[in-house]
Amino acid sequence: MKRLLLPLLLGAALPALAEPFTLLETREPNIAALERYEVATPMVPYAGAAKAAFPQGLPLAVGSGLRFKGYEKATSALEFWSLTDRGPNVDSPDVADGKGKRASKVFAVPDYTPTITQLRVSLAEKAEVTKTLPLKQNGKPISGRPIAPGQVGASGELGLGEQLAALAYDASGLDPEGIDVDAAGNLWIVDEYGPFIVKVDGKSGEILQRYAPGQGLPAELAARQPNRGFEGVAVTPAGKVVAIVQSTLDVDGKTRNDALFTRIVELDPKTGAVRQFAYPVSAHFKKTGDMKLGDIVALSDTQFAVIEQGKDKDKRMHNDIVLLDLAAATDISGKQLADGRALEYGDAAALAAAGVQPVRKKTAIDLRALGWTAEKSEGLALVDGSTLAVINDNDFGVASELRGSSLKLDELRVADGKLVDKQGRAQAGASLGVAANGESTQLWLITLQKPLKELLQ
């Protein structure tokens, strides 16, 4: 399939925003001010089956990562780096594959190019996308389609078009989920497929280097759950690149819901040295695999702020900002349990016997208590010592819509481009489409009463 650099319609008419800026009330003692901005974004051209519902295209989803860039000289507006993920995609049934099955996603714009963006926040006025920088490999735009089975970074997912036909794989495909910048101006992004750490030219969008499991990164990271690879990245003051795996590793397909930690990876780009640390799963999750980390931002060389989210044992959604310190944590690279198995198999006693000291962490801010409602708080940035910015991923404003069937998506399969039940029986009249999810992109500025680092004490 030919890869296209799809233009973003920066000048297109946008849907009216309810309130470009709102000063929110809060009674939280640690919060001095709370501001909410509806982000005005360009539109992604869309010509699919649901075009009538999206006559202007799909709103660009810029909330997969966030990092403070600086103040605009002329206006003192805040400027941020942000980025999109792999593009407009929605949930779909597994694809029947002989006697087995493969996970799938429907890509509403199959040739979409994952894009780095810049945001401007005019304080107490508005937030908007000002620049876009599509990612390139060897001068050619990449796509967000999955990587073929057998290649490094393959997730086992199969991309489908809206008519449920299989799409071509992309050996250069990326699913970006975090961004930061180093002292030389290079951008660093992470991805969910590999999971990869990628160095990018900040002016051209050209991919300069790609670190992968077994190729500069620990081979065990290939056991990340599909669509749960790296979710955030931070460059420390010393220049180390720190990436977080969204959820627990699924070693041999057996540990995703029982492993007591997910992994933090620290890469030194100057030497290639890598360290790994154990980030413990919070006790309120029923299954450990329910925890999902979002973005990460460096407060120092060892202290960080992380978004931790997911539904707890009582089905309550959490979106928490958690502070953590790596200073006393064990480098778990090369460590195993006493019986030779991966650390992910171990209970607390076995991990302690293996000499694993996890990172120290402390919940600092409950976003839900502040009125946050979006499921995916995926971007986190530190404007100054006491001001945070948080942004959500609105999935390009789309969700899947199953029509003409009493079954649920996970009770169906795709076979030869048709919807069938698990027994292979055709579902006459059933169809899967793309519908609006009604979610906008919001950026919140949270001003604390005291510096964020002090909350870790």
TrEMBL record:
Domain of life: Bacteria
Gene3D superfamilies listed in its UniProt record: TolB, C-terminal domain (2.120.10.30)
Any single Pfam family the record assigns to this protein: Phytase-like
Signal peptide: 1-18
The UniProt record lists the keyword Transmembrane helix: no
Entry keyword annotation includes Signal: yes
Classification via SUPFAM superfamilies: NHL repeat
Residues covered by the Phytase-like domain: 80-396
Alphabetic keyword roster: Signal
This protein's name: Esterase-like activity of phytase family protein
Organism in which the protein naturally occurs: Vogesella aquatica
